[in-house]
């Protein structure tokens, strides 16, 4: 991995056209820690994550790195040397193998003629193995299932070897075994000193994998801190509009469960 990087975003405002979607968000991703973004659909989680890549340029606010660099001063190649992102949806190119997709992750590390990358093949092999797709390396991506493709694109992010990794719902389309394995990879990245930001819908998974949690509602950060501080029954019930119970098991793990649908009083 490259040198760990701290990412600090201050007062980010992100818009689609004239409509603001994320309002004055401040968030920090620390090396060696997993920061999980949670919130109901439409709360701005994915938009904020894309904003942290700086490819969705904020209309207001600043993104800075631990070495003093500012995202606004960097070109796309320089940003890709610092931040890798797994989006919710990726194209499925025809006639391209799994290995070729994973090799895409090496583009910011190649020379200007895109030929010199002596460490690339070994790094690609490790990324394939880490995500469990090494046996699919020579197969066309178009032949794979949705869950297999998800792991292939994650392998491409790992091959990019950045100090910051952003993952938007990485367990989507995966069966239970691979959900567990992907979350293990997330923890492994943090243990290697990477700053990880991840959007998760499953609140139990969020509580289990997070060092830090951020709760968004209507494009605003309403709580940030440790999972125990953020993932409370009161906060989550208000955010999601259902009654949510939060318990702690004998091992100290949080468990989040909706108890019932909140009834809306009948009109008088």
From TrEMBL:
PROSITE patterns, sorted: ABC_TRANSPORTER_1, ABC_TRANSPORTER_2
Localization of this protein: Cell membrane
GO MF term (any one): ATP binding
Keywords linked to the UniProt accession: ATP-binding, Cell membrane, Ion transport, Iron, Iron transport, Membrane, Nucleotide-binding, Transport
Record-annotated ABC transporter domain positions: 7-243
Tree of life domain: Bacteria
A Pfam entry, by short name: ABC_tran
Record flagged with keyword ATP-binding: yes
Record bears the keyword Repeat: no
Stored InterPro entries: AAA+_ATPase, ABC_transporter-like_ATP-bd, ABC_transporter-like_CS, P-loop_NTPase, Siderophore_ABC-ATPase
Membrane topology: Peripheral membrane protein
PANTHER family, alphabetized: IRON(3+)-HYDROXAMATE IMPORT ATP-BINDING PROTEIN FHUC
Name of the protein described by the UniProt record: Siderophore ABC transporter ATP-binding protein CdtA
